Amino acid sequence: MTFAPEWLALRENADAQARSTELVDVVRATLVNRNPLTIRDLGCGTGSMGRWLAGRLGGVQHWVLHDRDPRLLALAEAGVSALENVTAETREGDLTELTAADLASSDLVTCSALLDLLTVNEMNALAVACVEAHVPALFTLSVAGRIEFDPAEPLDAAFQDAFNAHQRRVVDGRELLGPDAPAAAEQAFVAAGASVRTASSPWRMNSDALQREWLKGWVGAAVEQEPALAAEAPEYLRRRSEASAVVHHVDLLAIPRAV
Fold first, then answer.
1. Are 202 and 246 in contact (CB under 8 A)?
2. Is the peptide bond between 36 and the residue preceding it cis, with omega within 30 degrees of 0?
3. Number of DSSP helices (H) and strands (E) in the chain, helices first
4. Cβ neighbours of residue 108 under 8 Å, at least 6 residues apart?
5. Nearest to 248 by CA among 149, 177, 139
6. What is the pLDDT of residues 82-112, one digit of tens each?
7. Which of 11, 34, 102, 226 has its CA 20 to 30 A from that of 207?
């Protein structure tokens, strides 16, 4: 699955405001004596994680940017390598095939808005790879499956349930985690031998451009999953575009016990 650079640019500010800085403080304390840092960003998109995190970690850093989309990788490499004291390189391919050996030279593994696209087995394998390589993992903005509109209305639950079911769909034989990703990630890392901390990282929107674009996709996916909602969708979309919205996410920091 690939994402348009325009969508990633639209959400970057909301992502930056939502991510947990408290977990970054723990990361910085954990890696305090390591310089330079090598950071692997999985599903990097246009490099928004690097732009958000590099300055908060400080020091000299080398980012290894992983994605399946060469267009996004080119944008990410240009943006991240332009940061002060930061160099970057890219890796194109399937990140679900990464092993402990691939991560062995890393000080930190990161991702943003990725885990819902994995399966249970892929999540377990990624956790094992991080723990066996003794590499902390900071995984941000995993969808939690919960939306709050103000004002609320009865149809909210029906569209939310349909969207969540769509997120859990089977794609090419792969059953996606969707909103089950935060719990699955925590369980996988604990089972692999890591300590885990989580933090809430909600988007907060108020009838802005991001909300309007996000709602199109959210309502569209719900209708695709539950066609019976189609008749209600146009007016529901209009009303929800005028409400404020909170889209809940979860950030997770896993630190292998060996670290």
1. yes
2. yes
3. 10, 10
4. 27, 31, 37, 38, 39, 40, 135, 136, 137, 138
5. 149
6. 999 999 999 999 988 899 999 999 999 999 9
7. 226
